[in-house]
Amino acid sequence: MLFKTRKKPSAVLIILVLAMTSVTGQIGIRFPSEKKIFTDPVTGAQLTFLTTRQSIDYKLYQTHRQWTADGKWLIFRSNRVPGETLAVNENTGDIVQVSEGSYMGIITVAQKSMKLYFLRMALRQVGQTRGGSVQVVEVDLDKLFADSEAGKLKGENEYQRVCGTIPPEIEAGGDLALDAVEEWIYFRIGKEEAAKHLPSGTKVEPPFEQRKMGDGPSGIGSMNIKTREIKFVVAVPFQIGHIQANPCVPGEIVFCRETGGKLPQRALTVMSDGTGLKPFCAESEYGWITEDAIITRVEVEIAIKRYLPVGTGPTPSGSGLWHVNGSADGRWAVGDDSLHNIYLIDRHTHEMMLLSAGHKTAASDHPHPNLSPDGTRIEIQSAMLSENKRSMNICIISVPEEWLNRKY
Question: What mean pLDDT is predicted for residues 96-102?
Fold first, then answer.
């Protein structure tokens, strides 16, 4: 089903707006290596910090791929170049700006090609984050890294391709996911557009519990990055949070209901043609699904915390892992907790190891661990080196050699 778009009037008023470009620098500019190795003060684990400046660095969300297809670079965002995306080479520590034009929402990295994708407003004023047409942009990382290293940078159009433009009435934004075939991009749509596709009489959900989040409706749309075709996928009566595409199964989407707290049902799945909408993990009254991440072709890793409703126990949130990820070969699971500890789990033996624990809990965000595609390393974001105890850096922790050498 295609989106229903309003017809344009024959006479239009053209308003010129200022394009908001990078505050400093251009795509491809390089920063010197900051790579340093530290020892976890609690567990003794070796921590390789790829960034060490007090510059507020954030990895991509743990539901998304972090490493480029060649396995050499990690994508992250930083206030070194406000509003832009950076990449750091895991071996050399070199840092390169890999976007220009101010991205919005989530960046998604391809697994089969040296490409990354993001959304940006087509015409925008300084400070504007929504309300206009939205472009889907592709970055050619191979070409960009080569020219950057050679010191022969060209204009941003040499490296960035506009795959297509989403009309303003769709209000595209938020999460972005790339289909397994790497031809379709999935994105969130706004309330008004989603309402058009809800069945008549559907009850729209109000804001939920203490944080007053999660009111609907919301939905998912898609764009073919080769043909520019735009399609409607699904509408739901609540707010959609993270969107993931199964990297092994074309057309399979996993998404969550967003409220910022315990839900009657968080985790859902749907196919790209809108069929098969259903929950994939039922929630109990005392089980709180905090996060989920696709890890293999047929598995989604889920963190379920013990939930004690307000007034029935000493804490409203319970205990346990908060954000989770896993290796594509099915060997390992990894998670963080509310104290920013990092745990590694052997899925064959069910053994659980406290891998790293020396991270400041006043940090501006959780560690959000990710396992590398080959299952040998874990990426986190950490405030261990922060002077103000809040700003974060990009850090790599190796899976212990004795675990990697295990035979089952």
Answer: 94
